[in-house]
C-alpha cells in the first residue's frame, strides 16, 4: 500500500474545478474533503474529484462524495468523479453507487462533459 | 550371651568385670536384634540370672499411656498386667524416671501387695529401673527377690540402671522403626485409595469434548468429585461436588455421593429435581453435620445451551473472553434440609465458557498466606482466555499449583469446541480516535497478507473493520475522547473471526441495522458493508453493563485447506 500523505488540492482547469485527493480518505479528514468539495461547488459550475491517487476510501469519504453529488444536482451544477482508482471503484461498487456518480476516465473527459 | 556362673563368690574387681562383660553382651544382642520381642524375652531371663533374681519383668507404656508387663520370667507369670504410671514400684520408677530400691517389700508402702495376695508369691526385695529415653521413661525393668535370700543393695541398683539403658535404647529405636513402617503402610494404602478415587473420575475424552474436568487433591485423597456422561438425547449431563470436611471420611462420603448423583442423573431429570432427589436421600443418611455442595446440569454442545442447578456450590462463572458473569447457588448444600426446592437456570452459552469450581480454587494461598479469592481467580482465567479450553484449564491449574493449595480443588469447564486451533492473527488495542485508523488498517492489511487472504477480499475486510471501529467512535463513544478499542482477529482453519470490543455505554443491538445499499445518501454505509461482506456478525453488550462486543466472521477460501 502506498504511504502517500493525505492531500486535498483544488485546481482550476478552465470551467472545471478539480478537487484532487491523495492518500487514504477516512474519518480523520473526510470533513475537510467534504468542505473542499462543497466550496468548489459554490465557486464553479462544474466540479470533478480526481481519485487516481486514492488508495483507500471509507464510508465517510463516500459520504462526502455523495453530498457533493446531491448538492450539485440540487443547484444545477455538474459533478463527477475523475480517474477513480481501483480501491475507490471497489468501494463504490460495494455501496452500489458506481452507477450513481458520473465517472470520467480523465480530466479531459470531465472537461468535455 | 553366656550363661553366668551363679554361685562363686567374686572380688569387687571381678564383679565389675563380670558386669561390664554382661553389659557388653546385652548391648550387642539388643543392637543387632531383628526380632525385639524374642530378644527381650531372652534378655530378661539373663538379666534375672545375672542379677541373681527370682523373678524379672519388663513393663512398657501402651498406647493409652498405662504400663503393661510385656516380658516376665519367674514363678508367677504377670505378662499382660497393667499398672498406672505412679502406681506401685514400677509405676513410680516411670513417674519419677528414677531407680527404685525396695529393701523390705513387706513394709514398704510403694509395693503393690495385690499381686502377692492373688498369686501367693512373697515379694521380699525389689529393684526397678526406668527405661529412660529422650522422651522420658517408656517403661521399666524390674527384678524381684535375690535368690540367696539377701536384699538388693545400692550397687545392684546401679547395675540394673546400666542394664536398663541399652534396653531402653533398643526398644525406643524399634518403636520408632515400627512407627515408620506403620506410616509407610498408611501412605501406601492412601496411595491406593487415591488411585481408586481417581479411577472414579471420568476419563478425559479424545478430541474436542465440550466438558473438561480436573481434580487436584490437597492431600492423597479428596472430598471433591466431578463426573459427566452422554445422554441419549445428545446432551451431556455433568456434576461437580465438594463434601464438607477433609480426610478419609470425606473421601468415603465423596465416593457415595458421586455415585448417587450419577445414578439420579441417568434419566436426565431437570437439574432442580435431580438435586432435590439426592438431597432427600442424603438427609436420611448423612451424619455428624456433614453436607455436600454440588452443581448438576445438562449441556447441549449443539446449540451451546446449558441448564443447571447449584446446591450451595461456589458461584458459577461465565466468561466471554472479556467479562465475567456470576451465578449464585440456587439453594442450600445437600444433606441439611430435607424439603428444599432448588431453582435452576438456563443459559445460552453460545461459545462462552462456564467455569464451575470448588472453593479450593479460590482458597489457594500465596507466599504471604493471602488467599487468591474470586477476583484473583478471574484474573487468572482472563489471562488464559486466548487458549483453547483444554490448554487453558491446564494453564490455569499450573498457575494455581504455583500457589499453595490448602483444600481440594476441582474444576469443570463447559465450552463448545472452537475447533482444533483458533489461532490468533492480530490483536490491537488503540485509542478510539480516527487518526489511529490508518495504522490499524496497515496492521490489519499486513496480518491478512500473512494469512494469504486475496487482495480484493483483504481490502474489503479492512474496510469493514475500519467502518466498525469508526462507528464505535462516532456512535458509541460519541465524542472523541481517551477511550480505547480492542481488535482481535483469529483464524480457525478457513474461518476468520473479528472481534471489536469497546468500553462505551451498552448500545441496543436492535438499533444497529444496515441501510439499503445503492441508496444515494450519506451515512449508514458502514453497517451495510458489514452486512454484505461478512458471513455473520452480531453485536451485544459486554457482561457487566459497560461496553459492547462486535463479532464478525468470514470464511476465506484460499490458503489453509481443511
Secondary-structure map with pairings?
The complex is a heterodimer of chains A (113) and B (562).
Chain A: E1 7-13, E2 16-25, H1 30-43, E3 46-57, H2 59-74, E4 78-82, H3 86-94, E5 103-104, H4 107-112
Parallel strand pairs in A: 2-3, 3-4, 4-5
Antiparallel strand pairs in A: 1-2
Helix pairs in contact in A: 1-2
Chain B: H1 12-32, H2 36-50, E1 53-61, E2 67-73, E3 82-83, H3 88-96, E4 100-102, H4 114-119, E5 126-133, E6 136-146, H5 154-200, E7 211-216, E8 224-230, E9 236-243, H6 248-265, H7 271-285, E10 292-300, E11 305-311, E12 316-319, E13 324-327, E14 345-348, E15 353-357, H8 360-363, H9 373-383, H10 389-402, E16 409-414, E17 423-431, H11 437-450, H12 455-476, E18 484-492, E19 495-505, H13 525-533, E20 536-541, E21 546-555
Antiparallel strand pairs in B: 1-2, 1-6, 2-3, 4-5, 5-6, 7-16, 8-9, 9-10, 10-11, 11-14, 12-13, 12-15, 15-16, 17-18, 18-19, 19-21, 20-21
How does this structure look, described?
The complex is a heterodimer of chains A (113) and B (562). Chain A is α/β, with parallel strands linked by helices and 113 residues long. Chain A has one domain (7-112): STAS domain (Transcription Regulator spoIIAA, 2-Layer Sandwich). Helix content of chain A is 40%, strand content 32%. Chain A has four helices and five strands; from the N terminus they run E-E-H-E-H-E-H-E-H. Chain A has helices spanning 30-43, 59-74, 86-94, 107-112; strands at residues 7-13, 16-25, 46-57, 78-82, 103-104. Chain A has a five-stranded mixed beta sheet. By secondary structure, chain B is α+β, with helices and mostly antiparallel strands. Chain B folds into three domains: 12-177, GAF domain (Beta-Lactamase, 2-Layer Sandwich); 203-414, PPM-type phosphatase domain (Phosphatase 2c, domain 1, 4-Layer Sandwich); 423-555, Heat Shock Protein 90 (2-Layer Sandwich). Chain B is built from 13 helices and 21 strands. Chain B has helices at residues 12-32, 36-50, 88-96, 114-119, 154-200, 248-265, 271-285, 360-363, 373-383, 389-402, 437-450, 455-476, 525-533, and strands at residues 53-61, 67-73, 82-83, 100-102, 126-133, 136-146, 211-216, 224-230, 236-243, 292-300, 305-311, 316-319, 324-327, 345-348, 353-357, 409-414, 423-431, 484-492, 495-505, 536-541, 546-555. In chain B, the strands form four sheets. Chain B has a six-stranded antiparallel beta sheet with strand order 3-2-1-6-5-4, sandwiched between helices. In chain B, a hairpin with a 4-residue loop joins strand 12 and strand 13. Chain B starts with 11 loop residues before the first helix and ends in a 7-residue tail after the last strand. Classes of the chains: A alpha/beta (113), B alpha+beta (562). At the A-B interface, helix 2 and helix 3 of A face helix 11, helix 12 and helix 13 of B.
Amino acid at each position: 500500500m502506498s504511504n502517500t500523505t493525505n492531500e486535498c488540492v483544488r485546481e482550476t482547469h478552465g470551467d472545471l474545478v478539480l478537487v484532487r485527493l491523495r492518500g487514504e480518505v477516512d474519518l480523520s479528514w473526510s470533513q475537510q474533503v467534504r468542505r473542499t468539495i462543497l466550496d468548489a461547488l459554490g465557486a464553479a459550475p462544474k466540479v470533478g474529484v480526481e481519485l487516481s491517487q486514492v488508495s483507500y476510501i471509507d464510508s465517510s469519504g463516500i459520504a462526502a462524495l455523495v453530498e457533493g453529488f446531491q448538492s450539485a444536482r440540487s443547484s444545477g451544477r455538474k459533478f463527477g468523479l475523475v480517474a477513480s482508482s481501483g480501491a475507490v471503484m471497489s468501494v463504490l461498487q460495494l455501496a452500489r453507487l458506481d452507477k450513481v456518480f458520473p465517472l470520467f476516465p480523465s480530466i479531459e473527459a470531465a472537461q468535455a462533459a | 550371651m553366656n550363661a553366668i556362673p551363679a554361685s562363686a563368690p567374686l572380688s569387687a574387681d571381678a564383679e565389675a568385670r563380670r558386669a561390664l562383660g554382661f553389659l557388653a553382651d546385652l548391648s550387642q544382642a539388643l543392637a543387632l536384634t531383628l526380632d525385639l520381642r524374642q530378644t527381650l524375652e531372652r534378655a530378661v531371663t539373663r538379666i534375672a540370672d545375672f542379677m541373681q533374681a527370682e523373678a524379672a519383668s519388663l513393663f512398657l507404656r501402651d498406647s493409652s499411656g498405662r504400663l503393661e508387663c510385656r516380658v516376665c520370667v519367674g514363678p508367677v507369670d504377670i505378662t499382660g498386667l497393667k499398672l498406672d504410671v505412679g502406681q506401685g514400684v514400677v509405676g513410680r520408677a516411670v513417674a519419677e524416671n528414677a531407680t527404685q530400691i525396695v529393701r523390705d517389700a513387706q513394709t514398704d508402702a510403694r509395693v503393690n501387695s495385690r499381686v502377692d495376695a492373688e498369686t501367693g508369691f512373697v515379694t521380699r526385695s525389689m529393684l526397678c529401673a526406668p527405661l529412660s529415653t529422650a522422651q522420658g521413661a517408656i517403661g521399666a525393668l524390674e527384678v524381684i527377690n535375690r535368690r540367696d535370700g539377701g536384699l538388693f543393695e545400692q550397687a545392684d541398683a546401679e547395675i540394673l540402671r546400666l542394664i536398663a539403658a541399652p534396653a531402653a535404647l533398643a526398644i525406643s529405636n524399634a518403636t520408632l522403626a515400627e512407627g515408620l513402617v506403620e506410616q509407610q503402610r498408611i501412605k501406601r494404602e492412601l496411595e491406593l485409595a487415591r488411585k481408586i478415587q481417581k479411577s472414579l473420575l471420568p476419563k478425559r475424552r479424545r478430541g474436542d469434548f465440550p466438558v473438561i474436568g480436573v481434580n487436584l487433591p490437597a492431600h492423597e485423597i479428596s472430598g471433591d468429585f466431578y463426573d459427566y456422561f452422554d445422554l441419549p438425547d445428545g446432551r451431556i449431563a455433568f456434576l461437580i461436588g465438594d463434601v464438607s470436611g477433609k480426610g478419609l471420611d470425606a473421601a468415603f462420603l465423596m465416593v457415595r455421593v458421586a455415585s448417587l448423583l450419577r445414578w439420579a442423573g441417568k434419566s436426565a431429570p431437570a437439574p432442580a429435581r435431580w438435586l432435590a432427589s439426592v438431597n432427600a436421600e442424603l438427609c436420611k443418611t448423612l451424619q455428624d453435620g456433614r453436607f455436600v455442595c454440588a452443581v448438576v446440569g445438562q449441556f447441549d454442545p449443539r446449540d451451546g445451551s446449558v441448564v443447571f442447578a447449584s446446591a450451595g456450590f461456589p458461584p458459577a462463572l461465565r466468561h466471554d473472553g472479556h467479562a465475567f458473569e456470576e451465578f449464585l447457588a440456587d439453594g442450600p448444600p445437600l444433606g441439611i434440609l430435607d424439603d428444599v426446592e432448588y431453582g435452576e437456570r438456563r443459559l445460552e452459552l453460545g461459545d462462552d465458557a462456564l467455569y464451575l469450581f470448588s472453593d479450593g480454587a479460590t482458597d489457594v494461598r500465596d507466599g504471604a498466606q493471602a488467599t487468591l479469592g474470586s477476583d484473583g481467580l478471574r484474573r487468572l482465567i482472563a489471562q488464559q482466555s486466548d487458549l483453547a479450553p483444554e490448554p487453558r484449564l491446564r494453564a490455569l491449574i499450573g498457575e494455581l499449583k504455583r500457589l499453595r493449595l490448602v483444600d481440594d480443588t476441582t474444576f469443570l469447564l463447559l465450552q463448545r469446541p472452537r475447533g482444533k486451533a483458533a489461532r490468533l492473527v492480530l490483536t490491537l488495542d488503540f485509542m478510539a480516535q480516527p487518526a489511529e485508523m490508518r495504522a490499524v488498517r496497515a496492521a490489519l492489511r499486513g496480518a491478512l497478507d500473512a494469512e494469504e487472504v486475496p487482495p480484493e477480499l483483504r481490502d474489503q475486510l479492512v474496510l469493514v473493520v475500519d467502518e466498525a471501529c469508526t462507528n464505535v467512535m462516532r456512535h458509541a463513544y460519541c465524542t472523541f475522547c481517551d477511550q480505547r478499542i480492542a481488535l482481535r482477529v483469529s483464524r480457525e482453519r478457513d474461518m476468520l473471526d473479528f472481534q471489536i470490543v469497546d468500553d462505551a455505554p451498552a448500545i441496543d443491538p436492535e438499533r444497529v441495522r444496515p441501510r439499503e445499499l445503492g441508496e444515494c445518501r450519506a451515512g449508514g454505509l458502514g453497517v451495510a458493508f458489514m452486512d454484505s461482506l461478512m458471513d455473520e456478525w452480531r453485536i451485544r453488550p459486554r457482561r457487566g453493563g459497560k461496553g459492547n462486543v462486535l463479532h464478525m466472521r468470514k470464511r476465506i477460501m484460499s490458503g489453509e485447506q481443511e
